[in-house]
UniProtKB/TrEMBL annotation:
Chief site of localization: cytoplasm
Name this polypeptide is given: Protein-L-isoaspartate O-methyltransferase
Keywords assigned: Cytoplasm, Methyltransferase, S-adenosyl-L-methionine, Transferase
EC number: 2.1.1.77
Family: Belongs to the methyltransferase superfamily. L-isoaspartyl/D-aspartyl protein methyltransferase family.
Entries under InterPro entries matching the protein: PCMT, SAM-dependent_MTases_sf
Species: Bradyrhizobium agreste
PANTHER family in the cross-refs: PROTEIN-L-ISOASPARTATE O-METHYLTRANSFERASE, PROTEIN-L-ISOASPARTATE(D-ASPARTATE) O-METHYLTRANSFERASE
Compartments where found: Cytoplasm
Length: 294
């Protein structure tokens, strides 16, 4: 069975990374290397292609789990391992480097945590946060052999987050948590779904500059996730829906001060997104801030 799993995994990695136009061969190698079986549990499995009812596989043939689809962790609650093609695209966009420190918010059973661990290598670090006690236990068990990963069974929006080069969020929010922005090192990238629970929003990437309150930002794609506890706001969700309906591709910066002007795409409390670009840095960009454009 392992030989079959390796064959499926190799094709799956090549297919999803080709679709994501991933330029970094390490990303395909990560998807090729990390086995999905430990993270999905014993089959048969419930799968979905997003927005459609779950379909139960006829048996536990691993061929069923090496496809670009949602895999249910808890079908009653709509908790899934997200679509690998989408994650390959987002991970390509934020360009995780070897040796970097990554915070993951919403680790689930740990599959994408393992992918991140492969990308940063043993010289890096992954701090994974999972508020669901059962899932945190599964992730901790699944990742116990990876020394440079730690799983924290609590919320990932508290103010005591470690400093990070990348913060990768797998739960929808009506706003970026202040703790995420504060934890980023200069050149660090925050990638999170600006998408309150139940709403199709967008995966936003924000890069921290060396200084200043205007940060480069852009949407990588549309996105929808289960909601991040503590970052839900019905009124903000309504206004975000209106903003996305008018287009989203023009967003170029996050502003943390100043009154919103005519370039404002959406304004939150103490922050707003603008269609105007952030200032171009006068100093050379640090190597860990290089971002693969999609």
């Amino acid at each position: 069975m392992e030989d079959r799993s390796a064959k499926y995994r190799a094709f799956y990695a090549q297919l999803i990374c080709a679709a994501a136009k991933a330029a970094d061969p390490r990303l395909e190698q990560a998807f090729r290397t990390v086995r999905r079986e430990p993270f999905v549990g014993p089959g048969p499995w419930s799968i979905s292609f997003g927005g459609h009812p779950y379909v139960v596989t006829p048996d536990d043939d691993p061929a069923f789990i090496y496809q670009n689809m949602l895999l249910a962790l808890d079908s009653a609650r709509g908790l899934n391992i997200g679509m690998p093609g989408a994650h390959a695209f987002w991970l390509s966009g934020c360009a995780v480097k070897e040796g970097e420190t990554v915070i993951q918010i919403g680790a689930g059973s740990g599959y994408y945590t393992a992918i991140l661990a492969h990308l940063v290598g043993p010289g890096g670090r992954v701090h994974a946060y999972e508020i669901d006690e059962r899932l945190a236990g599964l992730a901790r068990d699944n990742l116990k052999d990876i020394a440079h990963v730690d799983v924290r069974g609590r919320s990932g929006i508290a103010a005591d987050l470690p400093a990070a080069d990348v913060i990768y969020v797998c739960a929808g929010a009506a706003q970026p948590a202040a703790a995420w922005l504060d934890a980023l090192r200069p050149g660090g990238r925050l990638v999170f779904p600006l998408a309150p629970e139940g709403m199709l929003g967008g995966m936003l990437m924000i890069t921290r500059p060396d200084e200043g309150a205007i940060w480069p930002a852009k949407f990588l794609s549309r996105a929808q996730f289960i909601g991040c506890a503590g970052l839900q706001d019905a009124e903000a969700g309504r206004r975000l829906g209106e903003a996305f309906a008018k287009g989203w591709e023009g967003v170029q910066s996050l502003r943390r001060e100043g009154a919103p002007d005519e370039t404002c795409w959406f304004a939150g409390e103490g922050w707003w997104l603008s269609t105007a670009p952030a200032p171009v840095p006068t100093e050379p960009v640090r190597p860990h801030a290089d971002v693969t454009l999609t």
